[in-house]
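Sequence in, structure out.
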Amino acid sequence: MSNSSLVRYTKISPNKTSPRNHAIDTITIHCMAGNLTVETCGNVFAPTSRQASSNYGIGSDGRIAMYVEEKDRSWCTSNRANDMRAVTIEVANDGGANTGWHVSDKALASLLNLVEDICKRNGIKKLVWSESKNDRVNHLNGCNMTVHRDYAAKACPGDYLYKLHGWIAQEVNKRLGAGSDSPAVTPTPTTGAFKVRVSITDLNIRAGAGTDTARKGVIKPGVYTIVEVKSGKGSKTGWGKLKSGAGWISLDYAKKV
């Protein structure tokens, strides 16, 4: 079992289980809840008293560090079974809680590169993200991306990264040549919001992401801001949440501008 050649700093933590008892088939992205350098994060994981670690860390400058080799289980997600099968990645935040723990563009670019590399080396053919916690924690419907908040009372990985999981899966799957079931239209990673033009009349507004949710009215032709995207019943390209708070529209009938 190899490690990533993208690593630029290494400080192996004693907080680990060696070796892991499950093949790597899952990616778990965490946030540091602070703008830590990869060296500082390594120092945090160094004392045995900390009882915590991750396989990799990414700083806001885009540098990648390794704290626990992939052959070993990190102590990261408050769940032994998850960490036995997952490669865990801590990402620094250049924004605080009021930004949903935003991460820099450099960190996000490195995250995509690292996840792609992990998948290729470990034979993960396709990343699958689900909005369902039950799917995630039980690895149902092919889901192989999990989050810390599913196992503990934490905000990790922060709303910014959490909302980008579908987009991350989509972008990595393009590189893997796997395609994606994630929405084809997604929030830009820089702002988390984008504008679309609706040209048809009487496009339904739904209470949630899917035709199985209540109809709240219709939207007139025009340009609108989308702040979140989810997959859902009745739309091939995903459902977009309107910034106005009016509800969700199918992005099948909206063109990004």
